[in-house]
Amino acid sequence: MAGIDVGGHGGKRASNHEIPLIPFIDFLLCLVMFLLVTAVWSHMARIEADAKVPGPPREDEQDEPPKDKELHVEMRGENHFQLVWKEGSTVINTIDVPRKPVEVSGDITYPELGKKIESEWKANGAHRAATDKKFDRAVLHTDNSTPFADVIAVLDAIYVPTREFTVGGQTETVPAFHVTFATN
Amino acid sequence: MSGEKPLSRFHQPINVPGRRLLHHIGLGFVRKKVVGGGGRAMNTEIPLIPFIDFLLCIVLFLLASFSATGELPVDKNVKLPNAQNAVDMLDAPIVAVSGTHILVDGIPAGSTRAIVDANRLTRVDELHNVLKAKRDLWTQINPGKPFPGNVILQVDRKVPALVVKSVFQTAAFAGYPAVSFMVGRMAADE
User: Fold this and answer.
1) Would you state the pLDDT for residue A15?
2) Closest to A31 (Cβ–Cβ): which among B59, B119, B155?
3) What is the value of ipTM here, to two decimals?
């Protein structure tokens, strides 16, 4: 047992006090049990997308904003994906990627598509510097009947390339593309 | 002879045998253990202080990671897909989209069947109104602050893309351009 000797022998009361360790350990064990039972182990995450909705015209807006290259990912083909680099409505380059799904514990993934998108971004991406506040944009085109799990698998592949991004003096690794859903 | 003091037992040339303790214990190895002459000590001390330190560390870790809000609500009719390149969750309205209905934070806000039956991109009015009301409430509570416009879609893996697009567009038109899809986290090395 642990004790605290505070000295002095002339007083009336005993000055050595024992800390009751066993009840203390019981209390700590109860606390651990309670916290373990009520703990939340979340495995949820999110995949980002954004919607470009035209707002009201502003007076200070340029007539013709500078056109950035966009990567259009077409997943309507049965046997292959199509990666199309566009600048405005001008098609710059078109790449076909074979559609090879890989099943991982019940979920479909497209690792080959992810690798191809990563190499394409390294070759053609416009915003690769860590200090660049803008991001390259990818637009996902899909068929209306495509199951959502397939859409997520392609979105997951688009998020394979990552880049450094410095904000507020801190550098972090973020996805290289901002993804938009094509609603047509 | 009678007047001489006898020598003490330590000064006698031959020691007089005294009484032997525990002599009545018969078995030799038991006597060894009882007397304390065995190899290992029978009684061992539990090191309490390191044990308490360990418990305190666990308590502090669990308290630091304790969440009073509980688990993220996932609709029982929604089976989420998994993804590797996902980011952490954030605090935002959750729109659950199952094969039959649409819920916003547990409140019914439209039907999926209506979109499928229409077979075209549809604005879901109920969803639009609920999300807009939430946006107005946020603006009233936080005057002067820019609205973040985040919404999380919790979509079942079998729901067709037409429904996803419709919900996505409805959320965007209700003032939520930053749409995220809730997924399960898949290990990167799988």
Assistant:
1) 66
2) B59
3) 0.72
Set out the domains of chain B in order of their start, with CATH numbers. 82-185 (3.30.420)
User: Contacts for B94-97 with beta carbons within 8 Å, 24 or more apart?
Assistant: B94/B151, B94/B152, B94/B154, B94/B182, B95/B127, B95/B131, B95/B151, B95/B152, B95/B153, B95/B154, B95/B167, B95/B171, B96/B154, B97/B153, B97/B154, B97/B155, B97/B156, B97/B159, B97/B163, B97/B164, B97/B167
Contacts with A, B 23-82, CB within 8 Å: 48-49, 51-52, 55-56, 58-59, 62-63, 65-67, 70-72, 74, 80-82
pLDDT number for residue B1 = 45
What are B64-98's pLDDT values in tens digits? 876 655 556 677 778 888 888 888 888 888 899 98
Name the B residues in 87-116 with CB < 8 Å from any A CB.
87-90
Residues in chain A with CB shorter than 8 Å from the CB of B184 are 43-45
pLDDT in tens, B145-185: 888 888 999 999 899 999 998 998 899 889 898 889 998 88
Q: Where are the domains of chain A?
A: 3-38, 69-181
Q: Nearest CA to CA, how far is B143 from chain A (Å)? A: 22
CATH 3.30.420 fits A69-181, yes or no: yes
pTM exceeds 0.80 for this model:
no
CA-based nearest distance A178→chain B, Å:
11
Residue A6 has pLDDT above 70, yes or no: no
